Amino acid sequence: xxxxxxxxxxxxxxxxxxxxxxxxxxxxxxxxxxxxxxxxxxxxxxxxxxxxxxxxxxxxxxxxxxxxxxxxxxxxxxxxxxxxxxxxxxxxxxxxxxxxxxxxxxxxxxxxxxxxxxxxxxxxxxxxxxxxxxxxxxxxxxxxxxxxxxxxxxxxxxxxxxxxxxxxxxxxxxxxxxxxxxxxxxxxxxxxxxxxxxxxxxxxxxxxxxxxxxxxxxxxxxxxxxxxxxxxxxxxxxxxxxxxxxxxxxxxxxxxxxxxxxxxxxxxxxxxxxxxxxxxxxxxxxxxxxxxxxxxxxxxxxxxxxxxxxxxxxxxxxxxxxxxxxxxxxxxxxxxxxxxxxxxxxxxxxxxxxxxxxxxxxxxxxxxxxxxxxxxxxxxxxxxxxxxxxxxxxxxxxxxxxxxxxxxxxxxxxxxxxxxxxxxxxxxxxxxxxxxxxxxxxxxxxxxxxxxxxxxxxxxxxxxxxxxxxxxxxxxxxxxxxxxxxxxxxxxxxxxxxxxxxxxxxxxxxxxxxxxxxxxxxxxxxxxxxxxxxxxxxxxxxxxxxxxxxxxxxxxxxxxxxxxxxxxxxxxxxxxxxxxxxxxxxxxxxxxxxxxxxxxxxxxxxxxxxxxxxxxxxxxxxxxxxxxxxxxxxxxxxxxxxxxx
Amino acid sequence: xxxxxxxxxxxxxxxxxxxxxxxxxxxxxxxxxxxxxxxxxxxxxxxxxxxxxxxxxxxxxxxxxxxxxxxxxxxxxxxxxxxxxxxxxxxxxxxxxxxxxxxxxxxxxxxxxxxxxxxxxxxxxxxxxxxxxxxxxxxxxxxxxxxxxxxxxxxxxxxxxxxxxxxxxxxxxxxxxxxxxxxxxxxxxxxxxxxxxxxxxxxxxxxxxxxxxxxxxxxxxxxxxxxxxxxxxxxxxxxxxxxxxxxxxxxxxxxxxxxxxxxxxxxxxxxxxxxxxxxxxxxxxxxxxxxxxxxxxxxxxxxxxxxxxxxxxxxxxxxxxxxxxxxxxxxxxxxxxxxxxxxxxxxxxxxxxxxxxxxxxxxxxxxxxxxxxxxxxxxxxxxxxxxxxxxxxxxxxxxxxxxxxxxxxxxxxxxxxxxxxxxxxxxxxxxxxxxxxxxxxxxxxxxxxxxxxxxxxxxxxxxxxxxxxxxxxxxxxxxxxxxxxxxxxxxxxxxxxxxxxxxxxxxxxxxxxxxx
Lengths: 645, 516
Description:
Chain A has about 650 residues and is mostly helical. Chain A is built from 28 helices and 2 strands. Chain A has helices at about 5-10, 10-15, 15-35, 35-60, 90-115, 120-140, 145-160, 170-200, 210-215, 220-240, 250, 255-265, 270-280, 280-285, 285-310, 315-335, 340-365, 385-395, 405-415, 425-450, 455-460, 465-480, 495-505, 515-540, 545-550, 560-565, 570-615, 625-645; strands at about 70-80, 80-90. Chain A has a two-stranded antiparallel ribbon with strand order 1-2. In chain A, β1 and β2 (about 80-90) form a beta hairpin. In chain B, β1 (about 65-70) and β2 form a beta hairpin. Chain B starts with 7 loop residues before the first helix and ends in a 19-residue tail after the last helix. The chains are: A mainly alpha (about 650), B mainly alpha (about 525). The interface between A and B is large, with 54 and 64 residues.
């Protein structure tokens, strides 16, 4: 489409972005033990920094309407069907590149400190670099199949990193769960992909290339597009932890905390949102799918936020919060506001990474403790962690002029005003904003304020994290404020963001109704409920009080238990799906296969044996018997022929 | 027969036999020399097969390097061999895996001379079956393979080896006898119609028999091949054979012998009897898909790793069968690619299971756990092979799987969707096994003193691992050489049907049979 001279100039550079982390990963895989922990970790960080530098350079060169491409070679060719290993960078990919390599780099640096005492640090960096490689394939692939390599590859890394501390069964079970639930999503994704290819193929267009797909999308019938997008969304729901496939993400917190920050908050889990945005030209043609996505997004956002209210594990609160925030992104997608979705993805990457790394700093200081009931009062011990945590909390709660304020309000405004939006969608989003403020400040108060409830021997060792860990925190905290300023509403200084993504999503979201006054009023409403959430959290958790216990025992404690046990979704899945499935499998393996299938085979064999055993009796070896038989047969034959005549 | 010059393929067939003859001459005590000899000749065969690859013209779909020598003139039986894109890589897979199988047999101490003798004869048998173009010759090689395998399982196998060996031979024989009858019938019909008695496959391809005759003949061939593949429900010999066979036996059985079943379909049963094959496609597709799901479900609950891998083969080969019976380029090409992938991945799995068995003398999943700590290299390789088997993009398995699904989806979306559940199921059973064997605490004291892979074992695995990655990253050198022959085969199928052949260039185009 756009073949400017710049595009030619940077062609070969694109491939180096994924390649450098891959090389670093391979070097550490084979020689990491010999290089030593420090060198291996340094190499991993430098590799991501190099990718980040290239990404910045590309971003600098990229004109807003342009696109860079780099075709490496033909990967699979079968008749008219051809897939190239080929990369592209346009405005959307550029944003993702900066998030993946930029925040990825910060988290690599942080990991130097966080994983310092771990004997598996080299292995950790091998996985982490490999993850960056696959994530870059995912966002840079110029066709669905290269995207899918990245898609599955990040799943592999996620699996490996969740189960990183493999000696503990719980961790590896969580890893398996993550991969398998994602595979269920991928099943839908692959079918959607196949349907898309074969439908277009029927009309002579064999392609998975995004640009060509966009050109030929009009060849598809609306019903087909609806089915294709529904199937693809199943994949997105798996990767981005939406109802009903969100169950893996909270368990994924078993991995080391930097992993939770990088993979399970900032980058991989947003891949589903990225994929739908990448294929926005398909999704906008499927209104039924979009409204389903919006509904699921809103339901997920609200549902996960309610669970987050009661969790006691510091990381689980953040995990459900991530699920909830991803729900916001899908609300935006569902109303066709792709730019808003990607904007929230962008700001969320900063403040959620900051929160996770902050929680990591806390866990690090408390010698692995994750239970918030054993924390408290850490403000005095961990000042840097505390202040960055405050900023990120304000951002996610949507305090004025923080990143979350801009991106969340953008989504809520779109939900209210866009033709695909509705008051109901807005209302759920609005309510969730209040819940978000409540559970985040609850966490802040429980962890950092009040009395320190840690054991004495833990308490004696509480220390602020080293500089390699606090610097990334500070940078991310800064991002948690300023990243949002790119997308200010029109009544302030206007959105650079929309301008940047305009060429990609162009006509994707239609003109909104409603005036700037409405927008300001809605913002004030959101601020009000956010403030209410904060105040509630303050009165309940900010001061020593019996309120939490009283709240918990409300209505006989039923609602509290329901939330604490996450609506018993895991248990319900277990009874409805897992158990019947294993029962069926066991019956086939232990009863049907040996008994019926093999039983038949052996029965045939026994039959043949039995048959020959009977006839063996005839072979007596006695000549008189044979002669008698011979005579009898001759007479019988004679009689037969005589009768014939 | 005067000027009998040994052609390229004949030399390839001869190398293992020569090795076997030399082996006989080496005194019994010198077991080192036996291994060296077997390794030398299998490696020689591999090198020679590389020169064949070099001579092979990848742009042509026809048979190449054809050698034709009259054998039993009176019956029209010839020694006729040749190679095309379909058999080329199966031959290479065989020669590639044989030295590895020999190296993996280092722990065989008992009667190693005979063991290696049978291995070498087996190699010639398998290679012969892949290159034979005379039906009678094919049948001879097909049966020749059975005998060494029978002994390999029956003599060097596990505790229930006799049962497994007899079951393996009888089951296979039962199928192949019908095939022999069909072969003879086919040749005589050809003689009746054209006055030429021949077993030449290429001439028999052009014989257009009426449908009812094709149907019976197809059934006879298909039964024989279906048992070999094995297609559900003819699979129960496989787990028994695998469990009892020695490591190298399992590797060869899974990686190569099973491929003769699928190869048989694409080389013989389908192009010889296209009308019948097309008519049978809905049934074959259904059996294939049932096999994919059934094999996976049964694999999940196995306590013995070897049995798990055996049932996973039933599942994977179901996918290959699906590809072959959708009769379009993507399906068949993907099917052939998947045969190679399965050979490598499952071969590697059996090698790994063998290595751990050599150390612990058990293959029960519950006896392991936490091996990563003690055996990091072993675990890393197993991880890679596991994901190859699951079909992770970037590794070999995905390319074949995707092409098959693509080809099949154009023809029969419903069955393809059912087949695609295999990608969920395989993740479930493989990762569950992996977790229980490799992850967790290292509690069993027996496992705490295990040693990681030694140099020989790394040497065995390294080439397989390299190919698993290479074939996932860069499949074109393989796919492009397979394509012309697949095109030709499909043209044969549809030419007889009077169907347009241009459709072969697309993934199905209009559906020729929708599998229902």
